[in-house]
Design goal:
The chain is mainly alpha-helical. The protein contains 25 helices and 10 strands. Helix 10 crosses helix 11, helix 15 crosses helix 16 and helix 20 packs across helix 21. The longest helix is centred in the last third of the chain and has 31 residues.
């Protein structure tokens, strides 16, 4: 298929010159609204993750508008511009009625484009001494909404994700399609929708019980995960708030409230992580007892009496502040959704495997490096922490499984071929891992043994630096983009700066063996585009240019941010052009849609409308020509966007 990244050399011909995207002040502020989450499972992201660029955010909103319409897109834009928005913020930002905003939020939350959190705060009396015990326990709750542009951009990746799942079975692909179309479903509704898609698409007949195995496979491989509760506290409540100053009034009450919030958040999120990929048996509900799978356990008396609230559970959230109905908030059912994080992680690993096949390391060490990558994937699924620590036997097992799969793809294993003895294989792998410790051209320590502190001997466990390998491959891809955009001389200068802490212009000229005029022109072009950066070191306090040292360097975080901004800025312009083209042909598309809807109807009025539409189409032959042109443009732009997304994902995930 076109667009597959090969050796980092896929050209971005459509980028051309430097991409300049005009962004208003509100959109520019979006780049700081939150950290990029590598998937919808890492609620809230972490401070160390890169920020979402304004170009990514604008493209995400255009994709939402294309999928869900203008009204829902206005709600999404209001949530995104506020960062952490309440219902009143969204209503004022979108200038829509409150009921319309609530329906829009429900649609966005169910499609996982917006995350909902429940915030609880204390309400204290004016005089602390006059407060009673009940007043001290009084709580007020409200909901806040945070947009997830990263999941909105997954709209471009859904076809590739379905193509990956097709290797499991048609039923698994239909289950994933059902979750993509509806956003989130419980298990029973997912299987019912899968049956419908199988019968309409592939023409296969099956029973719901037969689909349990394929759904369990999706959960086991982590392609599907549980949906976090909308009543979860915000993820930043897990971090202790140190902004409370000593000595002010009400310090003890505030610290108790902060500690309670932190403990509750840690408990809820640890429970969510434990049950994230767990399929529980359907519970049999009895009239006298009721069980809850998440949150506090609430039991009812056998006589059907009023439920008792456990100690520590305070007031319920204000229903007027929530877009969900009380039944949806109190529903005791497990919902499932697509796990974008797993697909992004597998994209990284598959990209590394492709680079291994294309000569990332020596040929005699390629099988070992593939085994390391596959063992790392298995470690992610088995371990919760310290996934980079790989056992030597796990690497050997991954190599044997990979060899068997490769033989099956080539037409079956050769007769008489025997497996290597385990001790001989371990010795060969151990020698290969020594050679793979530092790959030529990447300047990164890839894998090294973990030593015993007491004896100083190897423990048989190796640490695999996946983050360092991925960052090195990202910078290599950036080098290829620079060569395509500025030429091989600029790539030579960029490579020098990448491997040195900083250099002045004279050293760049000497090391790159260039004339001063050529070196100065190339470095200024790279600096203007945002691919290299400069330190200004003044000799004195005058700060005059003639008495200032200019030291050039590469900041990898800023570089990758610039690459993402350029690529997604181009994609945003393509998507905007596509939407403008579709809007220009809206009359013709509505006419054809009306004809196709009414031609098979039994209603007499609709049949007459279909006949009038057909007469109009016959009178104006250019309508069919324009519709054909729109179909060609649609297919071309969709392919182009997927090709761009393939390259942009290298700098994103």
């Amino acid at each position: 298929r076109r667009g597959v990244v090969r050796d980092g050399r896929l050209a971005i011909a459509a980028v051309g010159a430097e991409v300049k995207v005009r962004v208003d002040h509100a959109l520019a502020a979006m780049s700081g609204t939150g950290s990029r989450s590598s998937g919808n499972s890492r609620e809230g992201g972490s401070p160390g993750e890169p920020k979402v660029t304004p170009q990514e955010t604008e493209l995400a909103l255009l994709l939402v508008e294309d999928k869900l319409g203008d009204t829902v897109a206005r709600v999404a834009r209001a949530v995104t511009s506020k960062g952490q928005a309440t219902l009143q913020d969204v209503v004022s930002g979108s200038t829509l009625p409150a009921e319309t905003v609530k329906h829009g939020l429900i649609i966005l939350i169910k499609h996982n484009f917006v995350r909902s959190y429940q915030c609880t705060s204390s309400q204290h009396a004016a005089n602390p001494r006059s407060r009673s015990r009940q007043q001290q326990q009084k709580r007020s709750s409200h909901f806040i909404y945070v947009a997830d542009p990263n999941y909105m951009l997954s709209l471009l990746k859904f076809p590739k994700w379905m193509f990956r799942i097709r290797t499991i079975s048609n039923a698994a692909e239909c289950s994933l399609q059902a979750l993509i179309e509806h956003g989130r479903l419980n298990k029973h509704d997912t299987l019912v929708t899968t049956l419908d898609l199988l019968s309409r698409g592939a023409g296969e007949e099956a029973e719901i019980e037969d689909l349990d195995e394929y759904f369990a496979t999706l959960v086991k491989e982590r392609y599907v995960e549980r949906v976090p509760s909308v009543l979860l506290p915000p993820p930043w409540h897990q971090v202790l708030d140190t902004s409370v100053k000593r000595g002010h009034k009400g310090l003890k009450e505030e610290m108790d409230d902060i500690n309670e919030k932190q403990a509750k958040a840690e408990t809820e999120y640890s429970r969510m992580k434990e049950n994230r990929f767990v399929i529980e048996r359907e519970e049999v509900r009895t009239p006298g007892k009721r069980k809850r799978k998440a949150g506090p356990v609430i039991k009812e008396e056998d006589g059907g009496g009023e439920a008792k609230r456990p100690r520590g559970v305070h007031s319920t959230p204000d229903r007027c502040d929530s877009p969900f109905s009380p039944e949806e908030l109190d529903a005791n059912q497990t919902m499932w959704r697509v796990n974008a994080q797993e697909f992004n992680e597998r994209f990284r690993e598959d990209y590394c495997l492709e680079r291994v096949d294309l000569g990332l390391c020596k040929e005699e060490d390629s099988a070992t490096l593939r085994g390391v990558l596959l063992a790392y994937r298995r470690s992610r699924h088995v371990k919760e922490n310290n996934v980079e620590a790989l056992e030597l036997d796990d690497i050997c097992d991954a190599m044997e499984r990979d060899a068997m799969e490769q033989d099956e793809k080539r037409g079956g294993a050769k007769k008489g071929k025997k497996k290597k003895h385990r001790e001989k294989l371990r010795a060969e792998v151990r020698l290969s891992l020594v050679a793979l410790r530092k790959l030529h051209g990447l300047d990164v320590e890839l894998i090294w043994p973990i030593m015993d502190k007491n004896s100083g001997l190897e423990t048989g466990t190796y640490y695999f630096n996946m983050a360092g390998l991925w960052r090195a491959l990202q910078l290599t891809e950036a080098e290829c983009l620079i060569e395509r955009k500025f030429g091989h001389i600029s790539r030579r200068i960029f490579s020098l700066l990448r491997r040195n802490k900083y250099l002045d212009l004279d050293k760049i000229k000497d090391k790159a063996m260039l004339k001063m005029k050529t070196a100065r022109g190339c470095i200024y072009d790279l600096f203007k585009a945002g691919y290299v950066h400069c330190y200004e070191v003044p000799r004195d306090t005058t700060n005059t240019p003639s008495r200032t040292f200019y030291l050039w360097h590469v900041d990898s975080d800023l570089l990758l941010h610039r690459c993402r901004a350029d690529l997604y800025g181009t994609m945003r312009m393509i998507q905007q052009k596509y939407l403008d083209t579709i809007n220009n042909g809206k009359r013709e598309l509505d006419l054809v849609e009306s004809f196709m809807t009414n031609k098979n109807s039994e209603d007499k009025g609709k049949k007459e409308q279909a006949a009038r539409d057909m007469e109009l189409i016959k009178k104006e032959p250019e309508i069919l020509h324009k519709i054909q042109r729109l179909k060609e443009v649609d297919q071309y732009i969709q392919d182009t966007m997927m090709d761009f997304d393939e390259v942009a994902s290298v700098f994103t995930v």
